[in-house]
Design goal:
The protein is an alpha/beta fold and 366 residues long. It has helices spanning 16-30, 69-79, 89-102, 116-121, 126-140, 151-161, 177-185, 208-218, 236-245, 262-267, 282-289, 303-306, 321-333, 338-343, 350-361, and strands at residues 4-9, 34-39, 56-59, 83-86, 107-111, 145-148, 168-170, 195-199, 226-230, 252-256, 270-273, 294-297, 313-316. The radius of gyration is 21 Å and the shape is globular.
């Protein structure tokens, strides 16, 4: 059966890869595909309730990827998938060995979730840097095909692994299906509520310290402005301390994780992204789809392929907090056409992404 595919992911926690996995699985199932979605566990899961009933959903009950070989091996032996799409690096390597030792000839497709050269540069810890990642680096490229979230990610991985570009492809992340349904029912929110928004894990990659510092300077001109930060992570206390040191603690709201992101995006004056690097930032797409302009560092990779300066936001010079501040001020002083901002997200519609997924999954792989 050619229209049969299995998706494999570690969990369905509140990340971009997890949300996209469910969106694509649901979309293909709705188009008549035989879709299986396999997760290691549902710890801290926020997306499992969104899975379409047409999707064959299976939980392996494994706490960590490193302990998953036996369960994955048994699954492959029993289910014998034709094509397997894996949504993280470690699981891809694990499935390479499962395929090798099980003598099953399924097609192994990997979805690249980050700019791999930047990820390698920013690794911390001897174990990760000198043992775990080199193994991933060696075996990840042995996938039959690698899907990238944007062109700059594709260029990066082709160069990093010296790959034949035909072994890779680009499928832009689509707008969240919930946001698409919202936009079909409602007008774009025209009444903003006087706050800037940051959305992402409170970890070093997201570099929220730059956003907070830029915001502290913007406050000198817009003293009634607030900053809302959505997300959880290990740097929460460190970032709170930064707001105290800058004297702006009472102006910054650490909201935590909230799955109802529409209400935050739609009423924000702008969404700010100050990451050191990205794969393809869904945050920017979701914001503009709801008519809210964005300001982002011109980091690798994604923002330059999403942002149209003056149309849906502005790019700031990479890691330049002064330019980030200047672009935020430019955004706050501009009279935006919110409907035009939303229209700039049409190229990231779910239907377009599903068409590309179908084209890829029906092709023959060598």
């Amino acid at each position: 059966m050619i229209n049969k595919v299995t998706f494999l992911i570690s969990s369905l926690s509140g990340g971009g890869a997890e949300g996209l996995c469910v969106n694509i699985a649901n979309g293909l199932a709705s188009r008549g595909w035989d879709i299986s979605l396999i997760v290691l566990n549902t710890k801290k899961s926020v997306f499992h309730n969104r899975i379409n009933k047409k999707v064959n959903f299976k939980i392996l009950g494994i706490s960590n990827t490193r302990y998953s070989f036996k369960a994955l091996y048994q699954f492959i032996k029993n289910e014998e998938p034709l094509k397997l799409v894996v949504f993280n690096y470690e699981l891809t390597v694990m499935m390479y060995f499962v395929r090798l030792l099980s003598f099953k000839k399924f097609i192994l497709i990997s979805r690249n979730i980050n700019t791999i050269s930047k990820k390698k540069e920013n690794l911390k810890g001897i174990w990760i840097k000198y043992f775990v990642f080199p193994i991933i680096d060696f075996f990840y490229k042995k996938s039959d095909h690698i899907i990238n979230q944007c062109k700059s990610m594709q260029n990066d991985i082709v160069k990093h692994y010296n790959l034949d570009q035909k072994k890779t492809s680009v499928i832009y992340n689509p707008v969240n299906e919930i946001i698409e349904k919202h936009n079909q029912r409602n007008e774009i929110e025209l009444n903003k509520e006087g706050y800037l928004l940051c959305v992402g894990r409170l970890e070093s990659q997201k570099a929220l310290n730059y956003s907070i510092t830029a915001f502290s300077n913007v406050l000198k001109i817009f003293p009634n402005l607030r900053l809302k930060i959505l997300g959880e992570g290990s740097l929460r206390n460190e970032l709170i301390k930064l707001t105290i040191d800058l004297g702006i603690k009472n102006k910054v709201d650490f909201v935590g994780f909230d799955s109802d992101i529409i209400k935050y995006f739609s009423k924000a004056e702008a969404t700010i992204l100050s990451s050191l690097y990205e794969g393809f930032p869904n945050v920017l797409i979701e914001s503009i789809a709801l008519g809210t302009p964005v300001v982002s560092f011109d980091c690798k990779s994604g923002p330059s392929e999403i942002i149209e300066n003056g149309i849906n936001g502005y790019l700031a010079k990479y890691l330049d907090v002064n330019d980030l501040e200047a672009k935020i001020l430019l955004t706050l002083n501009k009279r935006w056409n919110y409907k035009l901002i939303a229209e700039s997200a049409h190229r990231f519609r779910l239907d377009s992404a599903l068409n590309r997924w179908e084209n890829l999954l029906t092709k023959k792989f060598n």
